[in-house]
Amino acid sequence: MRRLLVHIVLFSFSYLATAQSNDGFLAQSQTKEKQVEDYFLETVDFDQYKIHLKTLTQKPHVAGSKANEEVRDYMANVMKNAGMKVELYPYDIYMSKNPGTSLIELVTPIREPLNQQEFILEGDAYSSSADLWKGWNAYSGSGDVTAEVVYANYGTKEDFEKLKELGVDVKGKIVLARYGQNFRGYKAKFAEENGAAGLIIYTDPADSGFTKGLVYPEGVYSNESAIQRGSVLTEEFTGDPLTPYEPALPLDGKKKIKRLDPKDTNMHTIPVTPIGYGSAQKILGLMSGKVVPEGWQGGLPFTYRLDGGDELKLRLMVDQKRDFVRVHNVVGTIKGTEYPDEWIILGCHYDAWGYGATDPNSGTAMLLGLSESLGKLAKEGKGPKRSILIAHWDAEEHGVIGSAEWVEQMKDELNAKAVAYLNFDGGVSGKKFGASASPTLKKVLVEASKEVNYPETDKTVYEVWKGDNDAPKIGNLGGGSDHIGFYMHVGVPSLSGGTSGPTLYHTNYDSFGFYEKFVDPSFKMGPMVEQLVGILTLRLANAEIIPYDVKRYATDLKLHFEKATAGVKSFDKNFEGFGLVDSSLVKLEEVAARFETSLTTVLNNSSLSKNEIKSINSKMLALEKSFIDSKGMYYGDWYKSLYASTDPFSGYASWMLPGIEYEISLKSSDRLEEWDMRYSRAIDNLTGKINVLISELK
Which residues form the Transferrin receptor-like dimerisation domain (predicted)? Predict the structure, then answer.
């Protein structure tokens, strides 16, 4: 699914530059940790990344396919050989296993079938594979419609509202919308809600194509046949559409899970399918209606029109079956030597729409290399104090399904044991490092980046990352990948990061050949990310006190509430602010500062018993849970975090303080008093937990 940082960052904060530090370690432990980290950096085998990536991407491997099972088995064997305990977690998911059959054809004023698959390119052997499928959108409805055409720009909520304002009725029409601005599933949702008979989604050259630069195979931008695949599943929760809040355990297993009837879900009923801009041009070029409003013009060489009138008829047919499909998560564990019941979890999905070289398997390959490097440490008697779990999720591309089901299955254990979840979906997709994270993990990430050299420079990752700024910028987590369940459903501090760059996102061209030619010909970025992630993981696993940056809660919350207050005042001039929250934040800021002082004193001057450490850390694990609210969000109570959520109208953007952000999107003041109380209560709960920690540190 979409991993590019532009889609998971709404806005970001510069982290204040600080001296290098190993937060959470007793003074007498820091020398040993430095030795372990130095050994780890030397242990990373720079050749393994390329080997793993090439093996993982030998074949297209969609969730539920035989090729994906081969990838699963390869990953399991690599981790077993590294000394990890490997477990498979099977689920039976209700989903579209393959494209089925589909067609798009012009009917009038001319009759012409339109291309639905990438061109076979001379010199690109990957593009000629018989295992590649035509463009498709999983969870499309099935149907065969012939109708007039309406162009809806990006198909956002605002775009459909604009069409109404302009007097353009989409009822009974086939909507043509371009990729971008929101999750493709919401394009389908809004089209269906407005009465459309079908939806076609295309990549416009203004967004990725010849207007940007050279197209593939000469360059990195979409050629006229490149097609972005992807799921259009949009429920009020994340995961299998038939088992909200419960894991979709195997139908033939001992534990039976009650499943919804498919007709009682929100799965789409209209046919939906994607095309490239070469095919879209043949439709748009025949349209003769009103000229589009400002901002709706794309990159094709003619004036875009809102509709084609009754002279332009298009046929859209999709016959896509849904059924139960067995998928598997693969989880390898290195058991902690001292605190085995405290977990550091790292993950990336492994299913892809095609070869998946950048998305997702650049991240998969990196994690396999990390499994081997950490395994070597453990065999040398330098194993982590806390358990490290490395997870490879299945069926993410169909709707972040595998990880969501695992979170639902393991919810109680995660509440008690999970220190952090670190996500690396497409984690080595270029040369520009970036990340988004919950407040408590931002500092430890920044510090880890100071320990790793950036390839072919005399600088660290930290120095390249921050560039000309005083410090790196770290964003806030939104939607689109496997951190959703951990962070937004059960409240595990989470991070999503890696390197970004050129991509032919979800097309048949995202192959090892594309990666080798355009993304990183040196194959040094994968090992670099492995080194950084390894240092980060080791610090989270080995620090006596979990190295959360507790002070960061107050810093970030103040900024979020300033933004939220301004958002409310933009439509309600009488709004006076969140008074209860303001009072609670003053207390939180003061208590968090006292906690940091107390912790620093203890770490520098004291020794703690194993029982004292366990007691303190059990309370540290509870901090993020302060924002988990049983009532959840009004747009979907599966989303329990008051702190962060995916934007329910775009599917990708980060919504901080989502309860309030939803009211802002509705331009409603009706529930602001309720949210002031709920947020104040959560902040007071957090403050109380920190006070208890201070008392334990005395």
Answer: 582-689
